[in-house]
Amino acid sequence: MKDLLTTRESAEILGISDARIRQLIYAGKLPSQKIGQMNLVKKADLELIRERKTGRPPKVENGNQINERKFKTIFDIVPELAGKHDNLPSDLSTNKKYLEGLGRD
């Protein structure tokens, strides 16, 4: 029983919350033994999830990872407008640093 850990002890070792440990157990990604109301995890089984990738996986469409933006940002639109119209205000800037500072008072 020395090699069995509670969800809290497992969480402390991995540096994550005990709620996340329970999620991994319920999802079947971390084996455990239920004794009474407690889920106990073997210390060796923590290695199964220690090197897991964090975060949301990238979107994949037809086997290819999607990296393209499908929308335009202000940085795409302003240069297009500035090039098409001569009657725009003279202070219209395409400088990203200038545009990022707008609206912050």
Structure description:
This protein has 105 residues and is an alpha+beta fold. The protein folds into two domains: 4-50, Orthogonal Bundle (Multidrug-efflux Transporter Regulator, Chain: A, Domain 2), CATH 1.10.1660; 69-101, no CATH class. The chain is built from five helices and five strands, in the order βααββαββαα. The chain has helices at residues 7-14, 18-26, 47-50, 74-84, 96-101; strands at 4-5, 33-35, 38-42, 60-61, 64-65. The strands form two sheets. It has a three-stranded antiparallel sheet with strand order 1-3-2. Helix 1 crosses helix 2. The longest helix is centred in the last third of the chain and has 11 residues, at 74-84. The protein is elongated, with a radius of gyration of 26 Å. The model has no long low-confidence stretch (mean pLDDT 77).
